[in-house]
Amino acid sequence: MHLIKQEIAIEVYDSELELSEEDKILLQLARESMENAYAPYSRFLVGCVLQLENNTLVKGNNQENMAYPSGLCAERVAIFYAGANYPGVPVKTMAIVARAKDYKIETPIVSCGACLQSLCEYERQFGKPIRTLLQAEGGKIWIANQGTKAFMPFQFNVEELKR
Fold first, then answer.
1. Which of 18, 88, 132, 156 is the most exposed place for a label (fewest CB within 10 A)?
2. Following CA atoms 146, 154, 7, 60 in sequence, which dihedral angle do they give, to the nearest 10 degrees?
């Protein structure tokens, strides 16, 4: 028997006042996008903004459907739009915010597994992590500089398909 140990590092900020102007803008744009989410069933709004390496900004928000599997999370809306419209341009930073209509979210919400796997594919394609900012209504901000590995350390790898 042997042990596999994974360590992650998440920077935690108590306030946006501690952030760079660029990060503050990304979070503000993610909040604006969140307000356009279509979430009549969960009443859980998520907004995402991607800053591409060429400084293009791409917004996404969750889009629900009464046939639940037909909806799409904010992160995948944004990353698929970026991939379709800006092929070959890596994502530098991603900001994600969340708000529930019926209760207050105190800590940042991490992307679901499907979104993390989709984001992981883009990181692998470009050979670099996507710096991620997360914020909920409670105000605290989490920043993961190592990308999706911070939230999903054991990712499905394309090498597994080559067997």
1. 88
2. 40
Contact yes or no for 59/49 (Cβ under 8 A): yes
Show me where the domains of the chain are located.
11-155
Helices in the chain by DSSP H: which ranges? 21-34, 74-85, 113-126
Q: Span 15-35, mean pLDDT?
A: 97
The CATH code of domain 11-155 reads 3.40.140.10
pLDDT digits (tens, 9 = 90+) for 112-122: 999 999 999 99
Q: Beginning with the edge strand found earlier in the chain, give each strand of the sheet holding 91-100 in spatial order.
A: 11-13, 141-144, 131-135, 91-100, 44-52, 57-61
**Pairwise CA distance, residues 18 & 12, whole Å:** 10
Polymer length in residues for the chain: 163
Mean pLDDT of 36-63: 98
